[in-house]
Amino acid sequence: MVSRAAPRYPIAMRVFAPVLLLLATPVSAFPTPQREVARIVSPTWANEPSRDKAGEASKVMRILNIRAGQTVADIGAGSGYYTMRVAPVVGPRGRVIAQDIVPRYLDMLKRRTAKAGLTNISFVKGTPSDPRLPRASIDVALLIHMYHVIAEPYALLYRLRASLKPDARVAIVDLDRPSAAHGMPKAMLVCEVRAVGYALVSMDDLEPGYLAVFKPAAPVDPRSVKACRG
Q1: Rounded to two decimals, what is the model's pTM?
Q2: I need a surface site. Which of 6, 53, 103, 197 has the fewest CB within 10 A?
């Protein structure tokens, strides 16, 4: 009897196997959220002067240590509240990627950033299941007051991993209330994000709401992801 050794694959193929699985995974392989998904109603959340007065953006950037030279993705950028405030911090050597699924919001933000003379911002139209950001390019991904409107959060977060640098962080700001009321209970958020292979780094209270910070952990097989239940 001739024994057959297990095939040996090149190191590069073993390293990139999770990426190949990600690319080959159909969106239908991911579960739908077992909670209400809020409807997108506006490109803005509250008004900018009140948010500035509460110090939300400055506190979030301080906790995340956003600094010059970094690449920050503003996912669901809307009217660009964070895009406009992060761009000067990362400076000319850094970059802000303003991402949204609504073309009209991106068009308005392009005009706003051009009027402000900001040249370190690029724009990406994503989908509810894929942010479509450049691979291995993101230091910090921001999802600000919009997680509750993501129709396919498991698919989007799973596909976001390919765009993150090894030490990247994902920062989610939301209100601790039901998603039907345009918020996200903390426990449900942590469960959903952990389900696709992220680890919770920190949870800080804001005025109002909270900031949850995650980092990529061990990759998961998307076929094993189960929807969280409240």
Answers
A1: 0.86
A2: 6
Q: What is the rounded distance in angstroms from the CA atom of residue 37 to the CA atom of residue 155?
A: 14
Residue 3 CA to residue 106 CA, distance in Å, equals 60
Residue 53 pLDDT: 86
pLDDT in tens, 113-172: 999 999 999 999 999 999 999 999 999 999 999 999 999 999 999 999 999 999 999 999
**What is the distance between the alpha carbons of residues 31 and 16, in angstroms, rounded to a whole number?**
24
CA 57 to chain centre: 16
Tens-digit pLDDT profile for residues 72-106: 999 999 999 999 999 999 999 999 999 999 999 99
CA distances from 180 to 85, 99, 136, 215 (A): 29, 23, 33, 27
Cis-peptide into 208, omega within 30 deg: yes
Which CATH number is associated with domain 44-217?
3.40.50.150
Q: Give 206: exposed, middle or buried? Use CB within 10 Å, 0-12, 13-18, 19+.
A: middle
Query: Which residue shows structure tokens 């964070």?
Result: 82
Question: Of the candidates 133, 170, 130, which has an alpha carbon nearest to the alpha carbon of residue 150?
Answer: 130
Q: What distance, in Å, lies between the first and last C-alpha atoms of the chain?
A: 56
pLDDT computed for residue 2 by the predictor: 41
Count of Cβ atoms closer than 10 Å to residue 118 Cβ: 15
